[in-house]
Each structure stands twice: as structure tokens, then as C-alpha cells.
Amino acid sequence: MIAPFGEAEVISSAFAPPDANMLLGADQLGRDMFSRIIYGARNTVGLALLATMLAFLMGALGGLLAATKGGWFDQFMGRLADVIMSVPSLIFALLMLSIFGTNLTVIVVVVAVIYSPRVFRLTRAVAGNVVVMDYIEAAKLRGEGTWYLIRKEILPNSTAPLIAEFGLEFCFVFLLIAGLSFLGLGIQPPTADWGSMVRENATLISFGEITPLIPAAAIALLTVAVNFVVDWMLFRSSGLKEV
Amino acid sequence: MGDILQLVLKRLGLGVITLLVVSILIFFAVELLPGDIAQAVLGQGATDETVAALRQKLGLDQPAILRYFQWLGGALTGDFGVSLVSGERVSAAITDRFVNTLFLASYAAVIAVPISIILGVIVALLRNTLFDRVANVATLTSISSPEFFLGYILILYFAVKTSYFPAIASLSADMTFGELLHRTFLPALTLVLVVTAHMMRMTRAAIINLLASPYIEMARLKGVPPWKIIVKHALPNAWAPIINVVALNLAYLITGVVLVEVVFVYPGIGQLLVDAVAKRDFPIVQACCLIFAATFILLNLAADVGAILTNPRLRHPK
């Protein structure tokens, strides 16, 4: 393991300053900040990845089916996406968490539901362009089923925009989960998590200490990095972005 | 003029329907609660009699549809029922805080809108220069950082280390307006940073898109001076996307305001909502969610109507 101490291990007095043993000092209970940042990376990033993948699974599946089936299913899914998108994401998450309580499964599912409409719309648009192609018509005439069409014909031809969207989506999901944790409604203590670490150590800021800024900076650094990679990918993949 | 009115009315009708569906969602989400509100409030140890008594007090013995219409009717007249925790009327708890939140959001908007449009146009004109690259990196960084990160940095440098501004935005009734602006400056600035970055990027994209169109090229080839191209040729067509950008970004403020209020302990409805969620005080949660959602839908509506009014092409759908 990289972390020198355990996740919830109390090793010194509260708010102890950094020394050779504890690179970033201790938090409000005397736990090593550095170790908790490392554990927090696993928890926060893992949870965000899980939620993003779930959102993609739901959104992409819905989008592909809507594009291939059309008709009332398409209409229904479209309106459903409209309704979910017409409530601000943080507000929607807070509403759901107040009802189902704050446990990890609820957070992952709620966040995935909130961000799946974006994926749905993109997939539907991209797949909609592919569906009208001649080779899809040919496959249909061969008598292939919907699943074959989705797996073998549509999906391979619409992966590029979806990959870029995955990066963006991950940033949104990550920021939302971090925001919820910061509000005390996300991942619950004593599990280390960057958002709640900011909250727990927030009082230190009034003494001019930067301790609460470290996990916040970690969040910012990760999302900024992912965003730059996505920006660069979009820039490379579309020649028409700049004139 | 008739067809514009018709289009706008159609869009308004759509907005009202969306709002109605969202209100149904907000109300019936609480019905999904395992058991019901009375059980959730009283907890495991409650006897059947106390649960039944509370159920009757809250009117839970009536069917859900009936209660929805009562709730909706109340909400339209500003009556959101009674808080489960304090027993206070929800409307009394919300009114002052809602005004505070509106004040903070408008304070941020008044600063952010002109700055970001001007900067966005400048950056679009100077595209692919060093200034543009720096602005791109700066705005992307600001967008990707969580609001509380920006907020705490501002507190650290402007409140703790230099004490130009107070770190906690406490309000009192007898403050002068100048004092009010001074106290709420840091939370407003945090919002400005986030929203300006979004708005600048979108304005830049809209203007660049516009400058690439053939008629601008034509004007340039004719030898029209650059400032005249911008003011006479580009700007009339740029209003539609700019209005759109502004309205959409004011909607971003809504999510931002919740986190910023918590960071600065600002007495607005964002903080009220977060407290109510933690305490599972459903009438307050429902009221706050409805207010936030309504504002969000309203701003999106404004964006669409603005676009219809300023862009004649949208009035004649192909």
C-alpha cells in the first residue's frame, strides 16, 4: 500500500501540523491527511466512475433503442429525458437523497439517473445519423434483429463522440458527488472522501491554514486534467472547431 | 406580429406543462418513501397510535391525488404547509431567505454578464493568439473547479490573510446598502468566477461561428473597417446567441448558489434546503426544490423566447 497509515487510524492530536511522519499534517480527529487523500482518491474516483458507467449504460442503451425502434418509445424516452433535465442536477440529487437517505447505492443510482439524459440525447443523435445509412437498410433486409443492428452496425460507428462524452460526463458526476459530500450528504464518515474532507477541516481556513484546500485542490486538479484531455481530443478529432 | 405571439405562447404553454410535470415529480417522489412521512419522522420506536395521530395531523389519511392538488393550490398562493421539525410555517421560513438568495444571484449576475460578454467578444476577435490561449486555460480551470474550492481560496486570501472582506456573509436588518454589498462581495465573486468562465466560452464560440459566415467575409473584402464589421454586421446577428448564453448561464447560478451559500454561511434558501435534507424535513425540501426548479425552467424559457424574438429565422421553421 502507498498510504503510510490506515484510513480511519488516529495517530496524533487533532489538527497537528505537518512533520516528517505526516506529510500534510492531521485532520480534525488526528488522522493523517496524506493517507486519507490517498484513500479518498480510491473512494471518490471509484464511486464517480461507477456512477458514470451506470449513466452511460442507461443513457446509451436508451438512446440506441430509441434510435432503432422510433415511434412511441422514442417519444416517451425523449420526454422523460426532458423532465429530468428540467430540474437542476444538484436540486434533483438533494430531493432524492432526502427521501432515500444517504447510502452509497442511492448516491450512485441517483447521480447516474440525473446524468443519463445527456448520454441518451447524444447517443440518439449520433445513432440517428447512422440508422439512415444504406448498410443498416441492407442489414435489416438480411433479416437481422435489433440487437444485431445495435451491436454490430451502429455501436462501432458511433463510439468516437461517446468516448469524449464519457470524459465530460465523468467530470460532471465527479463534481456533483464531491459537492454532495461537501454538503455532508454524500459519502459518510469515517470513509475518507475528498468532498467531506474539505467540510471537516473547513474551520481551519479562518486560521490561515491551507489544510482544507488540499482535498479541494485534488478535486479541482483531477477535473481540470480530465477536461483538458477531453478538450484536446475534441480539438484533434474535429477539424472544424477552429476557423 | 401574430405568428411571433403564437410561437411565444406555444413556448410558454410548454414551460407551464414542464413545470406541472416537475411539481408532480417533486410531490410524488416523497410518496415513494418506504412506509410514509409519519413513520419516517417518528422513527422505528414509535407506537402505532402516535404514527396514526401524526398521519391525521398531516392529512396523510387522504388519498395522494387529493393532497397533491391541495399542495399545488397552496404553493400557487405561497402556502407550502408546516415544517415537520420546527412546526413553523414553511412560507415564513422561506420568504426572507428567498429574497437573500435572489439578491446574491442578481449581484453576481450584474457583475458577470457585462464582463463576460465583453471578454468573450475580445477573446473571439483575438482568437489563436497568446491571450486567447491563456483565457482558454483560465476559463477551463475555473469551470472544472468545484465552487467550494474557489470560495475557500477567496476566503483565505481576501478575508483571512488580508481581511479586506468578511469571511462569513452574515446579514442584519439595519445594514446600509454599501455595507450589504461589502459583506456579500466574496460569495458573489465566487459565483461570478464560475459563471463568467462559462459565459465567456459560449460567447466566444457564438461570435467565432458568426465571423466565419460568408457575409462577414464579404464585408471584410469590401474594405469595411473592423469596428464597423463588429458593430454593424456581426452584432445584430449575435444578439440571439448572446441572450441565449446569458439566460442559460443564469440557470447555472442556481446550482452554484447552494454550495456558495453553505461555504459562506449565507442565509439563503440553498442553505435552508441542505439543512432540510439532512433533517428530512419534507415540506421545506419540496418547497425549495419547487422554487429552484421553477426558476431554472423560467430562465430556460427566457432563453428560448429571447432567441425567438431576436432571430427572425426561427419564426419560419422549415
TrEMBL record, chain A:
Origin: domain of life: Bacteria
Assigned keywords, A-Z: Cell membrane, Membrane, Transmembrane, Transmembrane helix, Transport
Limits of the ABC transmembrane type-1 domain: 41-234
Localization in the cell: Cell membrane
Organism: Roseibium hamelinense
Residue spans crossing the bilayer: 45-67, 87-115, 166-187, 213-235
Pfam family, one: BPD_transp_1
Predominant location category: membrane
Mode of membrane association: Multi-pass membrane protein
Family matches, as InterPro entries: BP-dependent_transpt_permease, MetI-like, MetI-like_sf
Any single biological process term in GO: transmembrane transport
Keyword Cell membrane (UniProt): yes
One Gene Ontology cellular component annotation held by this UniProt entry: plasma membrane
Record-linked Gene3D superfamilies: MetI-like
PROSITE patterns attached to this UniProt entry: ABC_TM1
Family label: Belongs to the binding-protein-dependent transport system permease family.
Protein name: Peptide/nickel transport system permease protein
TrEMBL record, chain B:
Residue intervals passing through the bilayer: 12-30, 104-126, 138-160, 180-200, 238-264, 284-309
ABC transmembrane type-1 domain segment(s): 98-303
Family classification: Belongs to the binding-protein-dependent transport system permease family.
Membrane topology, as annotated: Multi-pass membrane protein
InterPro entries tied to this protein: BPD_transp_1_N, MetI-like, MetI-like_sf
Localization per record: Cell membrane
Protein name: Peptide/nickel transport system permease protein
Presence of the UniProt keyword Coiled coil in the record: no
Domain of life: Bacteria
PROSITE patterns on file: ABC_TM1
Gene3D superfamilies documented for this protein: MetI-like (1.10.3720.10)
